[in-house]
Amino acid sequence: MAENRPARSGQTAKRAAKKTAKKTAKRAAPRSSARRGPEDAAHAACESLERLICHAAEGVSAVRRKDDGWCVVVDVLEVPRIPDTTSLLASYEVQIDERGELMEYSRVRRYRRGSADE
Prior knowledge:
Blueprint (H helix, E strand, L loop, with lengths): L3 H25 L9 H16 L3 E10 L2 E11 L8 E10 L4 E11 L6
Antiparallel strand pairs: 1-2, 2-3, 3-4
């Protein structure tokens, strides 16, 4: 059994190296020169906002084309509560440039999940 250990650790090292290579390739992959549509803008806005504020995006409630990119309104769960209808959510306005890079964001509204729009 001791003879099998080096092979296993070698296989484990190869797997770890492959995972590291994949992660590096993803980071190093060039972004397209321009985001193509509202779906891409919404996806980029959600990803960027989640990394910055450390809250998961619940969805996108608006996407608007601008001269220099996109304005995306992302809804985020900020304070989960039981029952779920009392959880606090917030809407963030996220400005994304043509390449999908975050330019700015701001929280524009905070509300209870069960509340109706005014």
